[in-house]
DUF1468 domain-containing protein
Amino acid sequence: MYRKYKDVVSAVIIFMAGLIYFILSFSIRQYGDAAVDSSFLPRILGGLLLLLSSVQIVSGIRKANAISVSDKDSMVGHVGYLPVVLTLLLMFAYAAGMKPLGFLLSTIAFVFFQALVLIPKKQRNYIVISIVSVVFSVAVYLVFTRVFSLVLPHGILG
């Protein structure tokens, strides 16, 4: 079976998720009158997700149009939508876990499981993944709370 537009399809799925994410970022409550508030980063990330997925859509269309007729017969195989679907599920689980678990725990879990989705099984080092998940999440938490003075959900830790 020929999958000429597999990059376009996955980019459209990511674009739709980014659009939902961006729209939902406007419902985040603001605390105080700071120039950089709790909705600042989600809006930036949502915009970047929309921009990058748009670039991927255009790139995928150009790539699909450049495929010659002889190449079409050789492009038979598995598309690999599982990582995209798992990433979307992880994003929704991350958003759902933010209030009960708090920013820190939900971010640690998200980074850990996202790494498991993206890293091939033979190359996984659970100790390194765990350390990176914790260090990255704590660093982001400290930057948001100390540098940007944002109030993040505490969840069960607060």
User: Anything to note?
Assistant: Residues 107 and 137 are 6 Å apart (CA to CA). Residues 82-118 form the longest helix (37 residues). The helical segments are 6-24, 40-66, 69-74, 82-118, 126-147.
